[in-house]
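This part of the workshop introduces the protein records we will be handling. Each record describes a single protein and holds just a pair of labelled lines. Instead of coordinates, the fold is spelled out as a row of discrete tokens. To make this concrete, we reproduce a full record directly below:
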Amino acid sequence: MRNPLPPVPATLLDIEVAGELRRGVPTARLVAAPDNDDVEPLEIEGVRITGKAGDVQTVPGDGPRWVAGLGGGEPKEYRKTGAALARAVNAALAEDVEHGGKAFRAVQLALPEEASGEHVTELVLGLLLGGYRYKVSGDDPKPSVRTVRLVGEDSALPELVARASVLAAATALTRDLANTPSNVKTPAWLADTAARVAGPRVEVTVRDEKWLAAEGFGGVLAVGGGSARPPRLIELAYKPSGAAPHLLLVGKGITFDTGGLSIKPADGMHLMRTDMAGGAAVIAAIRAVAALDLPVRVTALVPCAENHVSGSSYRPGDIVRHYGGKTTEVGNTDAEGRMVLADALAYGIRRFTPDYVVDAATLTGAMKVSLGLRTGGLFASDDSLAAAVVSAGSRVGEAWWRMPLVEDYAENVRGEFGDVRQTPGGPGGITAALFLREFTSGLPWAHLDIAGPARSEKNYDEVVPGATGFAARTLVELAASLG
């Protein structure tokens, strides 16, 4: 029987580099918007072409079948246009097949002469990710274009396309893992899948609940204790010869979050299948780092658990002992992400002695309120590392805003009955970050709260509804900048 689940990793289209256009292959043309409002828009075969970024028009006749606007020609507009073009081409292919027409599986477009390497990278990201689909269905999937031919004379074009394709694959894998429904995505499934897709240069070790208990991972065991599906810790290691800096990545891997005894409202709980988006980004990032052969050592940890409700669930008022011995007063079982991250941070720092530490998590609703749904929250103990994260994100089309670690609230984290409080008073995103800082041993550390941009309900730029894959590309680019 055919597996109804989409493949992980998803199959993305191929980007083929060519020196000239080929006869008989459907063509798309890229055009910029007029420089000012006084210039009349371009008209082709009676179709008005605005040139606005993301505006794709179908044109009759023997010329290009699609004309896609580039706006003012900024790199991010190339990404938006590539994504819109991928959607338009797939929609046209589905319509042709539905009406009995001949299916085409390749399209081609010539790059503008002024397109730089950054423009090409953004365009490829848009083309590859804009047409991403994830649907569990008993029907055959809709047909999609298999190949896009980029026509240009720059000798660096193949290398640019190859690198952008790896970045896009990291985003797509993050989406795959986060979109997988939680009746399939147990902690064990996530661990086994990570081991399968990591690639030959990444060493993967999966720790089970017995090992976690023996090593004292009290946070992971507490959160996972209410589920019949036991927790796991995924360890991934990329150790190229001669690499000097060592980056530790930690990603939240809550495969479903009911909130535990502090149960969530029913509205929106279905979205909690993506509550391991931070862990997915970490898995995808280290896979991409290895594929790019970057000269930086990377260790990635994903503590995986299902936060469920049962007689064995952990309770508000419990005191939990983490790896390394520090204790936490539990105030709200729905603040489970910081519980599992605390264990993994403490373990990773003691076990691997990294130079830099970065964690990624869909951690607090407060970040959605503060920054909306398209910008990630960044907290950092080190200015240089913070700047590196922001710069890395800007180069790959992911926006970050640095938030303050307000020391006036640090005292709130101190516990009365344990060492620290899980949910101290004060602004939720800041106090959550201050809690995590207690487990970072003073190392250069950045906390990426992606609760807002990890999910989307609509298309925008290269994003499609569902998991967005946010943070994976930033982590890869950050590792590249440290190497």
In short: The radius of gyration is 23 Å. The mean pLDDT is 95. The first strand starts at residue 14 and ends at 18. The CA atoms of residues 82 and 462 lie 8 Å apart.
